Amino acid sequence: MSAKAVYVGLSLLLVALVGLDICLTVELGRTTEEELESLRASVERLERRVAIERKGTPTRRPARGDGIPTDRFQSPRVEATSAGDAPGGQPQFDRDPAAWLARFHEDSGDWRHGLAIGKLLAALPPEEALRILTEIWGDLSVTHRQQGLKPLVFGGNPKTLDFLDLAATDSDLSVRQRAYSYLQGIAFVDFAEDHEAYLQWAAANKGRPLADVVEEGTRGFVAKLRDVPLDELDAALEDHRGMLQVAINRGRGTETDVKDLVMKAGAGAILEKALSMGDASTQKAALDWVSRMTPDSSWLQTHVAPLLTSSDTGTLTAACYTLGREDVPWARDRLTELMKTNSIVRSSAASALGMMGDARAIPEMISAIVSDPSSKTIYDVGYFGLGKLTGVSYSEKHDGEWWLQWWESNRAHMPEEIRHVTIGRMP
Hints:
Layout: H1 3-28, H2 33-55, H3 97-104, H4 111-122, H5 126-136, H6 142-147, H7 150-153, H8 160-168, H9 173-187, H10 195-205, H11 210-226, H12 233-251, H13 258-277, H14 280-293, H15 297-303, H16 313-322, H17 332-341, H18 346-356, H19 361-371, H20 375-390, H21 400-410, H22 416-419
Helix pairs in contact: 1-2, 3-5, 8-9, 9-12, 11-13, 12-14, 13-14, 14-16, 16-18, 17-18, 17-19, 18-20, 19-20, 19-21
């Protein structure tokens, strides 16, 4: 007899004994209602465990990082069974909305639980998930209507607009607001300001492919910015950067490259004008957009590199951060110069050099600390630059002498072109 069979047999016996205990305690009047409910719950747990052992452990288990004990996911009613159990080798899911509602209700107040069940729903065919969620939506807690929605509207689900409509027309304003915030990355409109505008937009786009709706929204979004006068562009860019980031985040993991759509719709020309003709405030707002849009290296060299000589420290700092990428080797010399000579932008220049990942900057950074052993320089260069390039955690004790000793101990492992660099000590 297998160990599993023995386990099941003993479990059945225990279920029977607990059931007998319930009968006796009720008969003898030796139990309170609370104790009786506790015993009944024990029987139910044991029965579920036995049922699971008889059927076998489901093949799919969510990660512990989902924030919910794994035994909550052992129900075969909600989990997919193995592909081999299904005709045609396809996973099978419970199609009964009541089963899904019961699973949500296991912990109606825990947002992590709602998020995890939402992930399971998102694994179903989109039409099936929409049918189930529509039927149980009104019976879910506010917390679960907020969190269970999230996995269904990110990742390019073709029913995204339908899922969002459930929330956008909800009676609870906090649920509506959640939908409105997600819709900003699709329609590029803040419907929190006008619910009727949402209803009209939803009716006009019902049934349309999500990619087409996003592309149309992107064109309209950029067209509005194109009409903004130059002296008002900084405010417009500031006001809409949050919406841009929502769209970029929502587009991750889908076939829609929002950054590319925005640039092709004309944002590149708007940013070029802001960087070349705008005042410092406009330039900084534009650089913030550029850092989010990540255009190619040649575009940056043409339109951002000239700002590395700006007399405005705010613009200079923003330009340094924008160039913190591996594909801009042409900016290394200027960033190194700024790190060594400009104490105001030193941290941003060191950070950009660190993000480049070019080990040739290590001797220059150590030299900067040796030349100016102030606590600010040790922090600016040690934390933002050397920490990224060497993996050494920042410490206020890591002064110039410490880094010189580190260099002598590690230079043999450096690239050949800098291995023999000697960093001079201060007299």
